[in-house]
Amino acid sequence: MANQEEITTRVKSLVVDHLGVDEKEVVPTASFIDDLGADSLDIVELVMAFEEEFGVEIPDDAAEKITTVQDAVSYISEHQEG
Amino acid sequence: MRRVVVTGLGLVTPVGADVETAWKNIVAGRSGAEIIKRFDATDFHTNYACEVKAPDHEFGFDPSKRVDHKIQRQVDPFIVYGIDAAGQAIEDAGLLDMDEETRFRAGCSIGSGIGGLPGIESESLVLAAKGPKRVSPHFVHGRLINLISGQVSIKYGLMGPNHAVVTACSTGAHSIGDAARMIAMDDADIMLAGGAESAICPIGIAGFGQARALSTGFRDDPTKGSRPYDKDRDGFVMGEGAGVVVLEEYEHAKKRGAKIYAEVIGYGLSGDAYHVTAPHPEGAGAFRSMQMAVRKSGLALEDIDYINAHGTSTPLGDELELGAVRKLFGDAMGGLAMSSTKSAIGHLLGGAGAVEAIFCILAMRDSIVPPTLNLDNPSDNCAGVNLVPHVAQERKVKAILNNSFGFGGTNASLVMKAI
């Protein structure tokens, strides 16, 4: 099971790849929409990528609450299997 | 009627991803055909095509030049090629800094024959393997044909007509013709017009292979596969890429001191009303399309110096087109050069007409007509016609005719002249 630090690194790399942003911008407090230029469909795609990468299931109502990088890291670390 | 001129060019082709590189290679007689690299096509009908080359190739394409990383991930390659070619054309025309008033009167007509076939294929496999929740949320708008026009309008703020032609292999020519009419009819002052295609994927090769349309007999040397008018031709070689021109109302272009490449003076369209894939046995649709374009241009047949033929290298199509040209031009054939640049870049399907229109414009600019490669043994019907075999020919080109014919029996012809 991945620790918080490892999860953060992998989340960052997915965000950089999907949103085409600089890694330096992907800080824990960064909002996907307000700071990283995502639209609602980009977030759907990101959430799918998190699910694939970490083997977690993120239902729609939970996905709506994931608005920042830290939200994603927290949700994944709390719901990882194993 | 308002006059329409060409003031910008953009190309992404298998022999170069900018206008000058592609043209240099076309004139030099270089071929873009190779064994397919994108997937293993060994067990397919054919294993060669004219792919757009990777960025590290001497005439490769770097998508990151003009297309954001995020958009590259979301859309099919035909849209990436289209955005890049449109960007080249806008830059070439010196129109990067249009004010809002100008942009209200600037539009897009960039189409495609098939659209996002690779993405439709790959996402269908995701659906089958992993279910609907794994299909990309960008699936639909990353594959739609009008999304080149959509993306380009957003990127450059173009608020005029937003249009996309879908007429198979006539798309590029129809796009330019229709857009020219929009300017002539005062719907816009500037139009980005052209076509793009990228269907070199397993389902694309299998589909055209099953339709018995592809060249299959040149696995040992793919550069010999596209051989329009040659006795040994056995089908077309699939190409990919994009061509986009900036069309502009003549006075508008003159007023801002734009470089003017050519004037679009004739546009002809017709339907074969005969068969979905086979051309009319007497080339009747092709004949009427060319006849209309020449009539509208006001030129005499003798004034046309060069024809860029549809000439796909299929056994039936090439000779029927040649027959229709002979019937129309009669005695005026003697002074004419006619070649097929598909011999070098393959068949770009929805992109073909626009890419070839640009080659015609460059032929006028540089007074040189590009060659028909691999024309080792011309068909018997070719006697007495200058098909520019193997090597480019220097000659004055003041007016051109460009033909495109597509599945469904759809025909388009353009006549342009130098100014």
From TrEMBL, chain A:
Methyltransferase as UniProt keyword: no
Pfam families: PP-binding
Coiled-coil segments on the chain, per record: none
Main location: cytoplasm
Domain Carrier: 5-80
Post-translational changes noted in the entry: 4'-phosphopantetheine is transferred from CoA to a specific serine of apo-ACP by acpS. 4'-phosphopantetheine is transferred from CoA to a specific serine of apo-ACP by AcpS. This modification is essential for activity because fatty acids are bound in thioester linkage to the sulfhydryl of the prosthetic group.
Sequence positions bearing O-(pantetheine 4'-phosphoryl)serine: S40
Record's keyword terms, sorted: Cytoplasm, Fatty acid biosynthesis, Fatty acid metabolism, Lipid biosynthesis, Lipid metabolism, Phosphopantetheine, Phosphoprotein
GO molecular function term, any single one: acyl carrier activity
A single cellular component GO annotation: membrane
NCBIfam families cross-referenced by the UniProt entry: acyl_carrier, PRK00982.1-2, PRK00982.1-3, PRK00982.1-4, PRK00982.1-5
The protein's role, per its UniProt record: Carrier of the growing fatty acid chain in fatty acid biosynthesis.
PANTHER family given in the database record: ACYL CARRIER PROTEIN (PTHR20863), CARRIER DOMAIN-CONTAINING PROTEIN (PTHR20863:SF76)
Family in the record: Belongs to the acyl carrier protein (ACP) family.
Record-given protein name: Acyl carrier protein
Lineage, broadest ranks: Bacteria, Pseudomonadati, Pseudomonadota, Alphaproteobacteria, Sphingomonadales
Gene: acpP
Automatic annotation (TrEMBL), chain B:
CDD domains hit by this protein: KAS_I_II
Transmembrane segments: none
Enzyme class: transferase
InterPro entries: 3-oxoacyl-ACP_synth-2 (IPR017568), Beta-ketoacyl_synthase (IPR000794), Ketoacyl_synth_AS (IPR018201), Ketoacyl_synth_C (IPR014031), Ketoacyl_synth_N (IPR014030), PKS_Beta-ketoAc_synthase_dom (IPR020841), Thiolase-like (IPR016039)
Molecular function GO labels: 3-oxoacyl-[acyl-carrier-protein] synthase activity
Pathway: Lipid metabolism; fatty acid biosynthesis
The keyword Acyltransferase belongs to this UniProt entry's keyword annotation: yes
Similarity field: Belongs to the thiolase-like superfamily. Beta-ketoacyl-ACP synthases family.
Protein name: 3-oxoacyl-[acyl-carrier-protein] synthase 2
Organism: Sphingomonas xinjiangensis
